[in-house]
Structure formats: structure tokens, C-alpha cells
Please model this.
Amino acid sequence: MSESNNTTAPYIEFIHVSKAFDDQPVLVDVSFEVRRGEMVVVLGRSGVGKSVTLKHILGFLQPDEGQVFVAGKEVSRLTEPELVEIRRRVTMVFQSGALFDSLTVGENVAYPLRERVERGLSLNEDQIQARVDELLGRVDLAEGRDLMPADLSTGMKRSVAIARALAAEPEAILYDEPTTMVDPLMAQTLSDLILKLKRATGLTSMVVTHDMRLARKLADRIVFLVDGRVAFFGPVSELDSAEEPIVQAFIYLDEVSFLKSS
Ligand SMILES: Nc1ncnc2c1ncn2[C@@H]1O[C@H](COP(=O)(O)OP(=O)(O)OP(=O)(O)O)[C@@H](O)[C@H]1O
Ligand SMILES: [Mg+2]
Model:
């Protein structure tokens, strides 16, 4: 495996990963990789193991078999301090946003900046506030800095969570179901935002979703999970010509449901 300073090595790599809970297999021989600067979307139905996949990247879960590499390091071999370091370099935007409810929007975004100051980043209070304004501007919430999370819609909470993730200046960002449980307009706003940030920052990104249209819109490459296995891994442009019947069935069903709803 290459070292982390080798820029041609994948940033995230799953090699024949299997994981079961109580003898119930969830991931079965899953292999894929995410290159630096790439956006890979993990697509699959509810319960297929998408969140479990993300938790392996951050070392919250360990594979039963196979290996997970992040930034050239095998995650299951890392010590606790090294895991803390990986979780700084790779940030997760949770479905709920997971904001600190007792802090304002602005203080939520300032939080990772203050943590970085504690670790030696040189920023004074005015510079922190300016950075918070800039980050909130990037997610179109410049007016929201003094609001409390309870005042925000689910979609706005996710936008704040994205701004907070960016404040940590990670190398990679993982989005868990960024567009579920919001109205279609907000879903579009969030997916536009994710795409815009990816283009602007070149961040290595992963999105997990069950939404085929979102996957097509965002992905450089798609990992299609069916029953815990990778049914397809490749560029979006090759998805439609994938021969696996199960992939074809999904594409067909997606088109039918789209025609019905439009
Ligand atoms: N810590 C755990 N202990 C036991 N079972 C678990 C654990 N985490 C996940 N599972 C099981 O693994 C399976 C996959 O869960 P996961 O949360 O990854 O699904 P998902 O694809 O993210 O689904 P959704 O779209 O609903 O978020 C589920 O059956 C879940 O119950
Ligand atoms: Mg999930």
C-alpha cells in the first residue's frame, strides 16, 4: 500500500471487505476506491449497508474480513490518537446535521475553528468571525448566524453542518443521505451546494444515497450495493450499459417511478 503522500494512490480504498452483525451479513466482499478529488456515490436501498460503509472509513466499525485504507493507512490498525487524526482529516455530514443544539449557527461553525486554534492555528476572534461569515455565505446562510438550530429546517441544518465540516478544512468529506427528508426544492439546493463545493474545493467526497437521480447528478463514479455486494462500480456514463440484471432492474424501476411522479 502506498504512503499518504503518494498523490496517485486512492484516498479511500475498500479491499474485499465483509461485515456481519449477529451472523447477518451486511457487507459482502466489497471493493472500491475513491481517488483524491473524486466524488464517489454509494447507491443502494435502505438497510443495504451504506452508513455501515461510512463508519468503516472513520474506524467506528472494523471489517470482519478485508481491509479499509484511508490516506494510505489501514484504518483497523490505527491507534486511538491516530483515529482521532483521521476523523479530523475526513469529516462526516450526518443525516440529522448533528449540530450542537445549545450553540448558535455561527458558534456551531466556529467550533472546529476554535478547536484548530487550540491546536496551534493562528486566528484571532475577528478572523474567526470573518471565516464563519464566509463559510455561511458559501452555503447561502449568511443571514442565519445568530439563529439557534431549533429555528432551522432540516435542510438548513444540513447546510450548517456542511459549513461546519468545511471549517475543519478536511481532506475528504462524507455525506450520509444529504437529500432525504427534505422537500424537492431543498433537495435540489443541497445537491447543487455539494456539487458547487466539490468543484470549488476539489475535496475528495463520498455521498451515500438511495436516490438514483442524485447519484447521477453528483458522481464521478458509482458504487451500487445490492444485498451487501457491489453490483456495479464504475463511471456514471457506464451505469446504463451495465449488464447486471439487478442494476438494469433498478434503472428501469427508477424511470417508471419518475414518470409516475412527474
Ligand atoms: N452496530 C450495529 N449492530 C447491529 N446491526 C447493525 C449495526 N449497524 C448497522 N446494522 C445493520 O446493518 C444493516 C445496514 O445498516 P445501514 O445503517 O448501513 O443501512 P443503510 O444502507 O445506511 O440504510 P438507510 O438508507 O436506511 O440509512 C441494517 O440491517 C442494520 O440494522
Ligand atoms: Mg444509512
Q: What stands out?
A: Residues 46 and 234 are 21 Å apart (CA to CA). Residues 12-261 form a domain with the Rossmann fold fold (CATH 3.40.50.300).
